[in-house]
Structure formats: structure tokens, C-alpha cells
Design a protein that fits this description.
The chain is mainly alpha-helical. The chain has 7 helices and no strands.
Length: 127
Amino acid sequence: MDLINMLTQNLGISDSQAEGGTGLLLDLAKKQLAGGDFSKIASAIPNADTLMKNAPEASGLGSMLGGLGGMLGGKAGNLGNLAALAGGFSKLDMDGDMIKKFLPVVMSYLKEQGGDEVEGILKKFLK
């Protein structure tokens, strides 16, 4: 089963919400990870480029906190990453609680497609 179907079936969200949320996550990962690490994640998710291109922009407070958190690094950087995701998820009519449900499905899919290494890259980035 592909990732978008897993998200829609497990979380009861629409295709556009699943695609947008995945695109937001990929876009954030691309901005934060080294090129080789990001390409491992992107290669495990079909149409990663299209998903990122069609994702809503994470703007407003979430994006601002994401930028500040990234500059501070460590735990603050990770909180900023989650804040930036929350801003984008709200544009998809999903609340912050959906991020908590969304991420484990994506992690499971990445582990299935790319193994522990690929799952670990995203896990480390989000902690």
C-alpha cells in the first residue's frame, strides 16, 4: 500500500490532506537535512517532488518559530520544526493533534520502504 492510502485509511483524512501533509514534511526535511539524507527519504516516497511542490506553504507563526528554532538548534530547533508543520497542517484543515497521528504512519511507511536507516534519519530530525 502506498503512503497516501495508508494515511487516508488510518487517519480518515482526504487524499489532498494526506498529500499536503506529506509534502510539508518532505519540504521541511529537505530544508533541514543534508542532501544525501534527504534523498534517502525522498526516494522511499513516490512522487516526493510533486508532493512538495503541491504542499501549502508553512507560513505565519509556525514558519517564524521554525526559522527561530532552526537557528537555535537542539531541542529548540525540533520544536520549531513541529511549529512550522503545525502552521502548514492548519492550512489543510488539520490541527496539531493530527501531526501526532500523521508522523507514526509516515515513520512506519519509511521503515517498510527504506529500512531502519531511512526511518532513523527522519526520527532524528524530528526529535
